[in-house]
Amino acid sequence: MHLTRRHALAAAPLTAAALAGCSRGESASGGSTTMIVPFAPGGGSDQSGRALADGLERATGDTVSVENIQGGSGAIGYSEFLGMHGDGSKLLATETALMALALTQDVRFSYEDFTPIFKAGDDFAILVTRPDADYGTGMDLVDAARERSILVGVSGATSLDEILFSLIEGDQQMEFDRVPYESGGEVLAALLGGHIEAGLLNPSEVLGQLQSGDLKALCALAYERYEADELADIPTGLEQGLDVAFAQFRAVIAPGGIDEEARQRWVEAAREYAGTEEYRTYLADNFLVEAPLYDKELGEYFEQYNEELAEAFT
């Protein structure tokens, strides 16, 4: 199954304190904002949220703090964020779980309950294993899983890696055995510890281990090879016969019900941030494909993404 999402994915650049507290009458500068990350520290979502918070803090002069609210594959963090309705001093670094949770679990929220602010770019995943593994390509791993149990780690039942493994299974008519974790950081630790045989991780999560030789890349589930020199030699799954490519968005949302002034200030702050060198550095450091969207345009993107993701779960 080859899902086309060339528009998608990225992390949450937007926020920070430029708008901190705007809905409460505080000034757009010198305020204090909390960026919620609904996953454990150490994974791609956490790294992205922190990088965006730091960049926006430098760009705006506001204080932007990061708070991890983990559990339930992101459901606990999103649920708490739902309760922050109308609070313009809160933001959340969001990704695929925003839609996937509502599509697969009994949660009280959907993407429509929040205020879309800014989508920074598209984030693809790399299929990795230990360097002494017998297989050297993604198709080798698939073939091995036809013969015996292959344990793979997933960072939640609605995570990008869970979606991608499911798409591979649908494309190749086979199955992996999953071990669930709370974050990409935990998947990485399990790989290094030899507790699982393979995982799908974002480049920013695993680059150090690839460069040190502690892990090796089998393929990238992307439409094209990475342009960055560090990753340019990694073939795509498409090159190896895996007809799967899917991008996770990384974006920033605000609670639902914030006033119009706060919403506009957040969007303006996001546009300003996207024009800075810090934003370019964020994209490069996290190996994201630039794909900025704002405000209502992002809301339309969320609607389309939700429709396509619903098809992936059927």
- How many individual helices? 11
Distance between the termini: 12 Å
Low-confidence stretches: 1-29
The count of domains is 2
Structural class: alpha/beta
Spatial sequence of strands, sheet with the most strands: 2-1-3-10-4-11
Report on the structure:
Strand 6, helix 5 (160-172) and strand 7 (177-180) form a beta-alpha-beta unit. The longest helix is centred in the last third of the chain and has 18 residues, at 295-312. The strands form two sheets. A six-stranded mixed beta sheet has the order 2-1-3-10-4-11, with helices on both faces. It has a five-stranded mixed beta sheet with strand order 7-6-8-5-9, sandwiched between helices. The protein has helices spanning 44-60, 75-82, 97-104, 138-147, 160-172, 184-192, 203-212, 237-240, 260-274, 277-286, 295-312; strands spanning 32-37, 63-68, 90-94, 114-123, 126-129, 151-154, 177-180, 198-201, 216-220, 248-255, 289-294. Residues 1-29 have low confidence and may be disordered. It starts with 31 loop residues before the first strand and ends with a helix. The protein has two domains: 17-123 and 249-312, Bordetella uptake gene, domain 1 (D-Maltodextrin-Binding Protein, domain 2, 3-Layer(aba) Sandwich); 126-240, Periplasmic binding protein-like II (D-Maltodextrin-Binding Protein, domain 2). The relative contact order is 0.23. With 314 residues, the protein is of the alpha/beta class. It contains eleven helices and eleven strands. 39% of the residues lie in helices and 20% in strands. InterPro entries: BUG, Bug_dom1. Pfam families: TctC (PF03401). This is Tricarboxylic transport membrane protein. Belongs to the UPF0065 (bug) family.
